[in-house]
Amino acid sequence: MFLNILLLIVGFVLLIKGADVFVDGASNTAQNFKVSKMLIGLTIIAFGTSAPELAVSISALASGSTDMVLGNVIGSCILNILLILGAAAVIRPIKIKANTVRKELPLCMLLSTLLAVLFLDVALMSGTENVFSRSDAIVVLLFFLVFLYYLITLARHNKENKVKEEKPEMKLGKSLLFVLLGLAGIIIGSEMVVQNCTAIATAIGWSERLISLTVIAFGTSLPELVTTVVAARRGEQDLVVGNIIGSNIFNICIVLGVPVALFGSVSPESFQMIDIIMLVASAVLLFIFATTRKKITRAEGIAMLVTFVAYYGIVILS
Known about the structure:
Elements: H1 2-33, H2 37-49, H3 51-62, H4 66-91, E1 94-95, H5 98-119, H6 121-125, H7 134-161, H8 172-204, H9 208-233, H10 237-263, H11 273-293, E2 295-296, H12 298-317
Antiparallel strand pairs: 1-2
Helix pairs in contact: 1-2, 1-8, 1-9, 2-10, 3-4, 3-9, 3-10, 4-9, 4-10, 4-11, 4-12, 5-7, 5-10, 5-11, 7-10, 8-9, 9-10, 11-12
C-alpha cells in the first residue's frame, strides 16, 4: 500500500509537469502553423490527452471487463464538463466564441444524446437487454468521420482568413518536441495514477462499476484536468474549450467505438439510469451556460462543481 501511494505521487508529478510542457508546445505549434488555438485544442490536445482512456478501454475490453470500458467513457465525459470545465471557469471565466456555440457545442451535445439513445434498447426497441453493439460502434465511428471533415473545413477556413498571427516563442521543431515530451509525461503519469489508484481502491473493497466511474474515469481524465487548469491559468481559453469538446467527442467515438468494433458488443446492465442521464445533462448544461452569455462565469463554474459533487455522492452511496 505504501509503494502504491509513493508511485501515485510520482504519477501526479509527471502529469503536472507533462501538462505544463504540453500546453507550451501546443500553443507554439498553433502559432508556427498559423492555425487557431481552438483547432489545436480540438485535435492535438484533445486526442493526445484522451490517449490514456483509449489504452485503458482496449485493454479492459480485451480482458472482458465491459464495466471498465463503459465507466471509463461515461465517467470521463461527465468529469470533463462538470469537474474540469467547472474548475477552469472558477479559475478564470471562459469566453466562448460564437462559432463554438453554433457548431462544436451542438455536436458534443448531439453525440452525448446519441450514445444515450443507443444504450436504451429495452425502452426504445423492446429488446431483452441494453447492448452497445458493433453496429452501434460503427454509427459513432461514422459520426467521428463527420467531425474530422468539419476539422478539415475549419483548418481550410483558418488558412483562407489568416488567423491573427502571434510570434511563437519556439521554432516548429522545438514546439513539436515539447508536445511529444509533454504527452509522454502525461500518459506515463496517468497510467501510474490509474494503476495505483485501482490497487488502493480494490484493497479497500470497491466494486468494478464504482472503480470505473470514479478512480479510472478520474485517473484517465487527469491529462485533460491538468492541461485545462494550466491553460486556464495562462488565459489560453480556446485551448480549454477545444480540449473538453474534442476529448468528449473522441471518448465516445474512438475510446468506446474502436474497442467495441474490434471485440464485439458490451452491455451496460450494471450501470444505472442516472449515469446515462448525467451524461446527457452535463452536455446540455454546458450548452445552456455557453449560449446565454457566450461565456461560462465563475458562478456557473461553481454550479457545475456542485452538480459534480452531488452526482458522485449518489454514485458512491449507491
